[in-house]
Amino acid sequence: MGIDIQLKGPVVDWAKSAGVKQFLFISSAGIYKPTDEPPHVEGDVVKADAGHVGVEKYIAEIFSSWAIFRPQYMIGSGNNKDCEEWFFDRTNCPMQLTNIAHVRDLSSILTLAVENPEAASGNIFNCHFYAEPRAAKEILVWQGTTNLPEDLKERFDEYVKIGPRQEANAIRN
């Protein structure tokens, strides 16, 4: 189920009526049209029928200060997604190409946007940090703090400890 304006519109409307001055929306890098030349950069073509696109446009119409964040697959200890497990279960696949973002990096860029709303306002930030977070680096002067090999080793160790196909249920319970 995608995120669409019928689901998120009331939240946006409530925030505006409550006097919220800055609206930050965590969207998804999954809205980009597929390309043969990754990684995606801000401004790449998006799927017109993706629900997130309508929400992003609505936020931009309603708020004068807004920013959109587009992470891909989130990694990091304690997250509620099982995307790492999907990849770990397929370690024998010859080709796996994707972009990932660590929860620490996403939280740090959100913090910068709150601390500097003028710089963040009206911008879209890709948040797949091991690929191309160009706008975050240029506009918010963001610097990543994570290390891909160490982060994946941490998650893989947790995965092995809990066991295949059980991690997602353990985290959600």
UniProtKB/TrEMBL annotation:
<protein>
    <submittedName>
        <fullName>UDP-GLUCOSE 4-EPIMERASE</fullName>
    </submittedName>
</protein>
<dbReference type="GO" id="GO:0005829">
    <property type="term" value="C:cytosol"/>
</dbReference>
<dbReference type="GO" id="GO:0005996">
    <property type="term" value="P:monosaccharide metabolic process"/>
</dbReference>
<dbReference type="GO" id="GO:0003978">
    <property type="term" value="F:UDP-glucose 4-epimerase activity"/>
</dbReference>
<dbReference type="InterPro" id="IPR036291">
    <property type="entry name" value="NAD(P)-bd_dom_sf"/>
</dbReference>
